[in-house]
Design a protein that fits this description.
Four copies of one chain form a homotetramer.
Chain A (H helix, E strand, L loop, with lengths): L4 E6 L4 H12 L3 E7 L8 H4 L11 E2 L3 H7 L2 E4 L6 H8 L5 E4 L9 H8 L6 H6 L1 E2 L2 H10 L2 E3 L3 H15 L8 E7 L14 H4 L4 E2 L7 H13 L5 E7 L6 E7 L7 H12 L5 E3 L17 E8 L2 E8 L3 H15 L10
Chain lengths: 341, 341, 341, 341
């Protein structure tokens, strides 16, 4: 790698922005060129994130898309849903390849997007062009893409274990139940009463049962895995911890299918993958063991006639910025681990 | 109430012992007479639990069953499973009525107990005599009993919402999935590597999927509610908080049954109950809102064609010592709330 | 007690309001009559605080001072500083006695108040009339007062241990250093980025060193104890826990003064007090042991030639609403513990 | 760097062992050759620390010092105090250079060690040979040494800010007070009742005031800085968080010394250092901003006539294994940051 890839982060002062910065500063093939934000303008990013003190002198600046197109080979969009689409829309077609961490390009069907996010998509054509990127499942498509739709955190934790099982017809497509648990950073750096420490600490609750926006995203991807329609029951929970996500998935094996076939399928798909680890028999994952990493740990057990799968990721790692950098590495021909370990 | 009821706590230096002490010191009809333990002998209980400083001068002493029988109208057994049975066995028949917080008398079938707890029950006859006590569901039986089997924490959180629905045939008995989450005090004051702060904090995991000892306890009670056999999938999780328990329950309503019928059933059973609260429509419980109390908060929602129920208790309150004191209040004719609010 | 005392809480939807509600609902001599707030208008207070579900049907209403004067014997002001003064100013002189949890009447010198809180006090005359109430130190004054200035949380934790030592001339007035640590609920239910879970959890920091508004409050009270001017170094810290406050105080004993004299002084002042506990020799307090209570636990040790004192309270209990209710009990002739245990 | 340095970790299954493994696996100039432990024998280290799943196949083995001498250029001793000395004693003199994370070689005076640790040092001669290694302060000595005494966590957090101030005579040597706060991982992976989650969470306490073993270590090093005897008051506290350490230091500037001189001294010593960051004026450090890193963040403020300094490190990073690897990098001629960012 002679020339370094020049990268910009747009939306640098949220948590996914912070993680992307950390990974890219560590990355030996990247020159992190520009940080765009609405706040901390002209101030060092280390004021927004003191953990970056001494790591970089980069400052935040107002978004300037011409500058991005001129200077940068890659742009990471760490923007809210519905805001990202316009930025992406204006960048795609230039030499700058876009990695969008929002939901704006995750659906193939614009009607689903419009319904789920309650807005009218302004760049529906780009939905076809965008690649939903989980490198372990569609590395080749990721390689060539110019608009990468980085998956949601919950969907990543669910799709990784279920994709092989649905693709190989090992489990029923009906009756899949996902009881998901997320640390609080999953809500971003949003300032809301429900997220202040005294409300979250020493507490636990479910929210948006059957109504979370990640449910249709999960259903679309699992549908593609199974080759048909999949409907799931998805109930997320807020956990009093900063980082980490655990999805406990309940499903029914097809007749004659047991632990061995499940294990074999996971091994077949992931044995050679670095970031997805099927744990040893009898072992269930803990979120602490993937915190701060890009790993996904998967464990499972039979419970009665059902199959229980537990999948742990860091919601900001494999669930967001880590996977974004992994996708970037695939897109630009780097070792997938670069910047991530 | 003229004469105060004299009470002893056997196993006073664990967390359920501590909570029982706090409730009984507050109880206007009780004289807390004796605290028995294996440790802190001859030392004030406030050394074991400094939160009791200034509240009582009671000291721990070695168990003396004759003393209990002579002096005490009631004995709370805050002992490990398999240890409680012998103490209960020796007390039953005396004037001392026993409230056992262990699992030793929770099953009606001794074979189930022996299998689940891996020992041979020494007092199988007493299983018939014991009353599994959830006052909201079997107050009359509790009243007259001399050996009260206080339910497990997970079972309490599950039985309270499901009992009315199964009894009224509103949901299918098959396919019930319980994804339960417990704070760490549920493991007691046990000293184990898996329970030290640095292992539990900022982490999350499932454990014993389909194999937890509370599963058969749940199944027996739900079976009695439905009038037939019930098998559930039960997966408990360890949450980085001290107190609190949330059970997220997935089940299928019978044809034609919707939110209204579910709400009506919960209201019919619990409207007049103080400690069980069916929350307003659209509201799901948070464990913080029942922490330190004897309340159970129940909320639910339809998710697709399924029903999702969330039930929150304090694992040491309604899940253990709180319910024990509530049962005691029923047994001895006190207001059920006495000592508990 | 025949007639119940009628009480109002003004500012019911913050954390000190919530705690006051809980204590007063439990109080056998109080009828909690009115809850005033700016939000949750006409809605049950249990919507603001689901922990109150089933405990009360009271609703929030807009402040109506005439109603308060007509109906209520006592008003608890759980309002922000600078807002409380006007409400108090309008109530004092009516039959309604005021317990103000804000700082608005804590200083005797209006110039100090104006400087510290950056506003001009509108009722400077009332400062003379107001009583700074720590029942253990000035019970008689509290009894007769109509305007009770309830102390700050940090000051309470500091004054309780230092008052006897300064009064008895056991320690030097110079060089007192207070390293104070507070749980996050001390900041109230305020919604701010610095208070969201992901910023506070797994973190620790000092703030406002030498500049916190509680420092002059501490200095005035310690000055009164010592009979001269006292200047302290006060550095508060934010701790990743919801409730609890620990002040570690460093001071120098006068020549010839050692542990025994310190212990004797604490005993002389507090031996007969229920809520202030000087711990056994060699024992230092933990905040968990006073959480949810109105207790103050005090421990100390000699370290080299200095004296180190640790004082633990619940910032919302003895540090705010608990002490307010204790003061109320003194004012209205109740047992001081009523509602508080 | 052609040949990789071969390294062993002795005591691999504790928290400092885990961190050292993580750093050394990431290190491009190191081949991590052997992991020695008393437990997990013949089992992959990823069973002890699932966070290492997929990162290494190394297994734990019984200590074999001949193997270490034969194979390894460097040995990291992550052993308890009093155990490390014997291992070090047997390795020193071979080609294997020793980095000892215990306290066994931190004191220059064996009598102090024997008194503080309550044992008789078996290799007192080696105390002279050992180098107490804080690279920012004595890089040259570290370079050449064969036995590196890696500083304690509390001492590191205290010495870094105070060394320049004492050396430059900016503050009084008398009356230094250190109120230190540590996350729970500072106690290691020790299994003790006082460290279980339900005891530590939502609590806070001081321990060993004036008696902690790190106090004499601090005093020896500060004495060397000042060129005379230094006595400090040192009170550590246990904080409900996993990682992180904050020392709040109270001291008196010499006459005429103010913020500017303090700032200049810190800049003079640390401006060119990567891992020690004097924060911008008015900024105090948060432990979260150094968590998982080898950084030390230092902030300060005048409070009255005193100086308050806050110093934050990760107790397992700059406070233990991070600094050990930094010292290793100096000893073996690597870039100091290698493996650490």
């Amino acid at each position: 790698m002679n020339r370094k890839i020049k990268a910009a982060i747009i939306g640098a002062t949220g948590y996914t922005g912070r993680e992307a910065i950390i990974y890219l500063l560590r990355h030996r093939g990247v020159e992190l060129k520009r940080l765009f934000a609405l706040d901390y303008l002209d101030r060092p990013i280390s004021e927004a994130f003191p953990i970056l003190t001494g790591m970089t002198d980069l400052r935040c600046q107002e978004l300037d898309l011409e500058l991005v197109k001129d200077e940068c080979d890659a742009a990471f969009l760490c923007l809210p849903h519905t805001v990202a689409m316009e930025v992406a829309g204006k960048l795609v077609g230039s030499k700058t390849r876009v990695i969008d961490l929002s939901a704006d390009f995750r659906f193939s069907d614009v009607k689903v997007y419009n319904r789920v996010y309650g807005v009218k998509h302004e760049y529906p054509k780009l939905l076809e062009q965008a690649v939903y990127g989980i490198p372990e499942l569609n590395r080749e498509q990721v390689k060539g893409c110019n608009l990468l739709a980085n998956p949601g955190c919950y969907p990543t934790s669910v799709i990784l274990p279920l994709y092989p099982l649905l693709r190989e017809k090992l489990i029923a497509v009906e009756g899949i139940i996902i009881d998901a648990k997320s640390g609080v950073s999953g809500a971003g750096r949003k300032v809301a009463e429900a997220l202040i420490f005294a409300e979250v600490n020493e507490s636990l609750k479910a929210y948006s049962p059957g109504k979370h926006r990640h449910q249709p995203e999960i259903e679309e991807q699992l549908g593609q895995a199974s080759g048909g329609e999949v409907r799931v029951t998805f109930v997320p929970h807020l956990i009093p911890m900063t980082r980490g996500m655990l999805s406990t998935i309940y499903c029914r094996p097809q007749t004659g299918i047991g632990e061995n076939q499940v294990r074999k399928a996971l091994n077949d798909y992931y044995e050679k993958e670095f970031f997805v680890q099927a744990l040893a028999e009898g072992t269930l994952p803990r979120t602490a063991d993937v915190a701060g990493t890009n790993f996904c740990h998967i464990g499972f057990a039979m419970a009665g006639e059902g199959l229980v799968i537990c999948s742990a990721i860091d919601n900001l790692g494999k669930g967001a910025s880590g996977q974004a950098v992994q996708n970037f590495n695939v897109m630009f021909g780097f070792d997938e681990k670069e910047g991530l370990v």
